Amino acid sequence: MSIEAVRRRLRHASTETTRLYALLDDKLADDETRAARRRARANS
Predict the structure, then answer these.
(1) Considering its fold, how many domains does the chain have in total?
(2) Which domain of life, per UniProt (predicted)?
């Protein structure tokens, strides 16, 4: 899905706002993945 389509779906006035949220979501996903890997290593 294009960033423009997401912007419209979320009713953001600016594509930059949508991009910011997308970047934050990516960072959160990366942080959660790293934490899960650390837990898996600690439990093995």
Answers:
(1) 1
(2) Bacteria
By residue range, what is the domain housing residue 20?
3-42
Q: Which residues fall within 8 angstroms of residue 3, CB to CB, at 6 or more apart? A: 15, 18, 19, 22
Cα 14 to Cα 18: distance, rounded to the nearest angstrom: 7
- Give the pLDDT confidence score for residue 25 in this predicted structure: 86
> pTM score, two decimals?
0.60
- Whether 25 and 14 have beta carbons less than 8 Å apart is answered as no
Write the CB contacts of 15 (distance below 8 Å, at least 6 apart in sequence).
3, 4, 7
Residue 9's φ and ψ, nearest 5 degrees, are -60, -40
Q: Which two tokens stand for residue 26?
A: 């990516």
